[in-house]
Design brief:
Layout lengths: L6 H17 L3 E6 L12 E6 L9 H16 L2 E6 L6 H13 L5 E4 L4 H10 L5 E4 L9 E6 L1 H15 L4 E8 L2 H17 L4 E8 L10 H13 L4 E5 L4 H9 L5 E6 L15 E7 L1 H13 L6 E5 L6 E3 L10 H13 L9
Parallel strand pairs: 2-3, 2-4, 4-5, 5-6, 6-12, 7-8, 7-9, 9-10, 10-11
Antiparallel strand pairs: 1-3, 11-13
């Protein structure tokens, strides 16, 4: 942990953090208890740089937030949270991570692949700080925990469920941005559908492209895309698009007999989606909270996790939610598919 030796220096660092956060257009919240862990020793100071949508997206960022909240509850200390904007430049991301590391936060965690290049730069400048990145691998610095998941495996199971539940033989996949990470979700889902019912049609649409990350934070775009698929005859739609997925779920809920498949968090359990929950067939849960918690605990214990740490289906890194009981009738088929993935009988593709 980086420690500021003088009160004056701490004040300057804190002021600089607040100023730069405002300058780069980030939103921030801070929870400082100043308490020590019940297990003894100095509490950790956790710095978090969320992806667009931030805490409250009911999906990816919220999954990470659960791990942060658990760690703070157990270890005490403080949390500083900054959130990306869709207009961010690489300089904005570098500044955000630098602000956190420079103010003594350790670990500093980037939630999302967009922080890959910026973290490579900042981690090299702060070798005594442990950094973590979710959904990407930073090459070079030895003080980074690369937290990765087998999204394609969970998505394969979603594809099996979609094929078994669809009555029209037409299902849909909506991706937030057409980047390699989201292509993994698409690849697994399409393979799961086709392995189950080869004749089924899978309609695919992305909400934004390239460096435009608005597809992760545009519920209106998600709703329009889902409505178009429903109009074309789709009756099961899987959306991997952050908070944009809430719009897709809303559209599906307005169509009798149609099902939505959520992502990253168990969206059936989200209070803000309660009025749509009877249309949420299942969710592909990516347990980002586990990876984030593991990193924070390792820093607290003085044995920081670094390198690439993968959380596959076999380790409950990804799973298929059963809330609502809507997939209970196909449990045998899903269990059989999961067993084959875990034992290697099914090799799930990572590209479409």
């Amino acid at each position: 942990m980086r420690r500021v030796s003088k009160i004056a220096a701490a004040g300057i660092a804190t002021a600089a953090l607040a100023l730069s956060a405002t300058a780069c257009g980030s939103t921030s919240s801070q929870k400082d208890s100043g308490t020590s862990s019940s297990s003894g020793g100095k509490a950790v100071k956790i710095g978090v740089a969320y992806d667009v949508g931030g805490r409250g997206d009911h999906s990816f960022n919220d999954s990470a937030a659960r791990g942060i909240d658990k760690a703070k509850s157990e270890f005490g200390g403080s949390v500083k949270e900054l959130t990306a904007k869709t207009t961010d430049t690489e300089a904005d991301r570098v500044q955000r991570l630098t602000d956190l590391a420079g103010a003594g936060y350790n670990p500093v965690i980037g939630i999302g692949y967009a922080y890959q290049n910026s973290m490579k730069q900042v981690a090299a400048k702060y070798p005594n700080v442990t950094f973590g990145i979710v959904d990407s691998v930073v090459e070079g610095p030895k003080n980074v925990d690369n937290i990765v998941f087998t999204e394609e495996q969970g998505s394969y199971l979603a594809g099996v469920a979609a094929a078994l539940k669809s009555k029209s033989g037409h299902v849909g996949f909506i991706g937030g941005v057409d980047v390699p990470l989201i292509k993994k979700f698409e690849a697994g889902f399409v393979q799961g559908v086709k392995d189950t019912k080869p004749s089924d049609n899978v309609e695919v649409q992305y909400l934004s492209h390239g460096s435009d990350t608005s597809g992760f934070a545009s519920p209106d775009k998600g709703k329009a895309a889902a409505q178009g698929m429903l109009d074309n005859g789709a009756d099961v739609i899987y959306t991997a698009a952050g908070s944009s997925g809430t719009g897709a779920i809303e559209a599906v809920a307005g169509k009798k007999g149609a099902w939505a498949i959520g992502v990253d968090s168990d969206q059936y359990q989200q209070a803000s989606l309660d009025k749509y929950k009877n249309s949420i067939l299942t969710s592909v849960v990516k347990n980002v909270d586990i990876g984030v918690y593991d990193l924070i605990k390792s820093v607290k214990d003085g044995k920081p996790l670094v390198g690439t740490n993968s959380y596959p289906l076999a380790k409950n890194g990804v799973s298929l939610a059963t809330s609502g009981g809507f997939i209970d009738d196909i449990k045998a088929q899903l269990d059989a598919a999961q067993k084959k993935i875990v034992d290697g009988s099914i090799k799930v593709k990572t590209t479409p």
